[in-house]
Amino acid sequence: MAKKRPQTSSAEQQLKGRAVGANEPVPVVGAREPCPCGSGRRYKACHGRAAAHAVTELVQRPFEGLTGEGDWVALRELVPAATVELTLKGGLPDGVPSVTLATVLPMAWPALRRDDGSVLLGVQNDTASGDLSRDLADTLSRALQAEPGTPVAAERAASNQGPRLQDLLDPNAPFEPVVHSGFEFWVPEAESASPDVAASLERANAAALPTVKLSGVESAYWCETPEKNHLRWVMTHPEEELLSALARLHAAGDSSLGEGTRLVGSFRAHGLVVPVWDLPTGMGAEECEKPAAAFAERLAGALASDAPLTPEERRARGGLTNRQITLS
Fold first, then answer.
1. What is the mean pLDDT of the chain?
2. What is the chain's alpha carbon radius of gyration, rounded to the nearest angstrom?
């Protein structure tokens, strides 16, 4: 049910500078061995201390407090190709005409600065600490200062006290994802791309599942697979309350989206629950709109109930919990 993250071996023709991988990998060492930084101290007493601290300080909901938290999670984990225009607190720096969040970038770059000074920030990248929001904010800060026409390499943030996305982005600005059928947004003029770039785009596009964002409810994404279609709906309700509400509906036979559809389980991603429905092959995104809106009303009623779960509802809740897959 999850998407494949496309990668490509060719860069935009306009990009210059070092490619990802230019930094040497950090050697794998034991806790009592000398730290590879050359300090002479054991790894656990040097750089290993920061790494251990990052693990213990895992932020379960890194996008909490941002406008469109559910869509941030969807773009990070579920949607192959999408972009969002970001608004910074205090406006854009001089020489930066725009900042755009993208699901994934060429060569899996964390970010890049185009020749015109605009910035693309990739959300689908490995992060160096337990706080995805801080890692992305650090990458964005470095991208804003990068030379035009260069990618931004993956690096560990200089401080675990640095700014987070919540500190950099305007909390009053809308967050409106635009889902694309392919990755032509990588280059300013895809039609005139070189043969190498065109081949890279073709490979990436072939790996992307057709995906559409529903317009009538928040953070719900229809996708098409060779076997069947799915609806994956990122919900921001507290997990325990949501699972109980879903169980009430499931036990009552009200958890489907119509004939031939079935609630099959859920993902857990970045502190949020993502229910997933199987859909008939012929059921497209437009056909999901009314059933999804009706389900949202039923769910609101189930969430409002504070009655104890019945035995049937407890069994339904256990089944939903057993079919939950953690993505992050």
1. 86
2. 22
